[in-house]
Write a structure and sequence with these properties.
CATH topology of the largest domain: Rossmann fold
Structural class: alpha/beta
CATH superfamily of the largest domain: Vaccinia Virus protein VP39
Radius of gyration: 21 Å
Largest sheet: 7 strands, mixed
CATH architecture of the largest domain: 3-Layer(aba) Sandwich
Order of helices and strands: HHHHHEEHEHEHEEHHHEHEE
Number of strands: 9
Strand order of the largest sheet: 5-4-3-6-7-9-8
Number of helices: 12
Strand content: 15-25%
Shape: globular
Length: 299
């Protein structure tokens, strides 16, 4: 590429798009990713990017841009390259310590919020907050969304990974006032929760590891995202079973368990939920129309 100070960001955008196209990206993704990379490198917002494309590139901006492009061409997921990704109303910091937030998990967060609304009906949110736990929180995507979108909640975000919790903590700090209603705790599933919450939680939500060891994942996922957050034994169902079988001890009567899983797991896990006593067990689809989440009510 030409040197910084001699070209505009518009020219850099065209060069970047060409490099991604040459590397095998389709036209649509090459254009989108080029714009995101240029916006990040230039410091322009999405709203002002068009008007700032004619600004000359700085040395620092070019160095940042080139480093991101090289990482992307090496196969690193764009979300890690940018260092952040949007999830519902939040702009989350993400890196290789956590899973990349995905649209299907936005649906799961929405299901948790619907259960919060059901349980909050007729209550004073300032004195009777709905108690929510996001187990295996990763970046904090689900739990922090609940706290940000519903003022009448008190949320515990837990993870067995101290690295993941460091990312969630950074995202929590960026949450502003809702962060005052969030507690982060390290530990495996229910072990991370304080004992006085047993039988008091009203919504337990999780996007646990649910990939089987021999499942064929895209290289961008298998080579870059944390194994501990992806894979589970017993054909990917081990952690789902722990959550389904253990949540009833922590939920109030009428409380909800909301779980993300793969489409082929929804039938067996719904049967398991019913067998251990959950009622009104419903499987919900993601935005692509695939079975993706289970919601069960503790009797």
């Amino acid at each position: 590429m030409p040197e910084a100070g001699t070209i505009s960001w518009r020219e850099v955008l065209a060069e970047t798009e060409g490099r991604l196209l040459a590397a095998g990206h389709d036209a649509g993704s090459a254009l989108r990713e080029s714009r995101w990379i240029v916006e990040e490198a230039s410091g322009a917002s999405t709203e002002s990017a068009a008007s700032e494309l004619d600004v000359l590139v700085t040395v620092r901006g070019m160095a940042h841009h080139d480093a991101m492009v090289e990482r992307r061409l090496a196969g690193e997921p764009l979300q890690y390259v940018l260092g952040c990704w949007s999830f519902r109303t939040l702009d989350l910091m993400v890196d290789r310590r956590v899973l990349i937030p995905r649209p299907e998990t936005e649906v799961v967060a929405g299901l948790a919020l619907a259960e919060v609304d059901r349980l909050a009906a007729g209550r004073d949110p300032s004195t009777e907050p709905v108690l929510v736990a996001d187990l295996g929180t990763g970046s904090g995507a689900i739990g922090l969304s609940v706290a940000a979108e519903r003022v009448g909640t008190r949320v515990w975000c837990t993870d067995a990974s101290s690295d993941a919790l460091a990312v969630a903590r950074a995202n929590c700090v960026g949450l502003g006032r809702p962060a005052q209603r969030v507690t982060l705790a390290e530990g495996s599933w229910f072990d991370a929760l304080p004992g006085d919450l047993r039988g008091r939680l009203e919504v337990i939500v999780s996007n646990p590891p649910y990939v089987a060891a021999d499942d064929d994942l895209p290289a961008e996922v298998a080579d870059w995202e944390p194994d501990a957050a992806l894979y589970a034994v017993d054909r990917g169902t081990a952690d789902l079973r722990v959550l389904i079988e253990g949540a009833s001890d922590w939920l109030v009567p009428g409380g909800a368990l909301v779980l993300e899983m793969s489409p082929d797991q929804t039938g067996p896990m719904a049967d398991l939920a019913r067998s251990v006593g959950y009622v009104d067990v419903v499987v919900h689809r993601d935005l692509a129309g695939r079975d993706r989440a289970l919601v069960g009510i503790h009797p």
